[in-house]
Amino acid sequence: MPETPVENAYPGERLGFPAEGSGSIARPGRRIGALFIDYAAATIIASAFLGFDQFALPGEAGVTQFMPMVVFAVLQVLFIPTIGGSPGHRVLGMRVNLVTGGWPGLWRPIVRTLLLVLVIPAVIWDADQRGVHDKVAGTVLVRA
Predict the structure, then answer these.
(1) What residues does the RDD domain cover (predicted)?
(2) Nearest to 143, CA basis, from 21, 47, 43
């Protein structure tokens, strides 16, 4: 008889991560909170320094309408390899690691961020609550 696949008791179990506490898979509430913090910071920076006007009428904003997303991407690429996560991740007690543990390097944050700004890869999760952007980059978002 073929074996029936066993479901994970918790996200990250099959990857060898603990169920709770430091090193466990970061849950959706923290992830969404970090996203809001990072995007708010990016919008403030874009408004203050790059001419982004969030109250411009459609068609008036031009290329500056993309400035918050550009700043968001730069924050991700800059801070993941240097402090282990974006400012939002760190504020909410998370870090980005390789699945095997350790520093994600320089190219993985770039790949992860490019897929993250496309949105769809970030909202398709597996049983371990890893988005496609993390799977492709070989990273995982864990509690610090």
Answers:
(1) 26-138
(2) 21
Q: Which two tokens stand for residue 144?
A: 């610090």
d(CA 95, CA 6): 28
Specify whether the CB–CB gap between 23 and 142 falls below 8 A.
yes
Q: What is the distance between the alpha carbons of residues 76 and 57, in angstroms, rounded to a whole number?
A: 29
Of 115, 90, 144, 106, nearest to 130 (Cα)? 115
Q: Each residue of 33-85: pLDDT tens digit?
A: 999 999 999 999 999 999 888 887 766 767 788 999 999 999 999 999 999 99
Q: Give me the residue label for tokens 């411009």.
A: 56
Single out the residue of 128, 141, 136 nearest to residue 110, CA to CA. Answer: 136
User: pTM here?
Assistant: 0.88
Where do we find the tokens 């874009």? 46
Amino acid at site 103:
W
27: region left, alpha or beta (phi > 0 left; psi from -120 to 50 alpha): beta
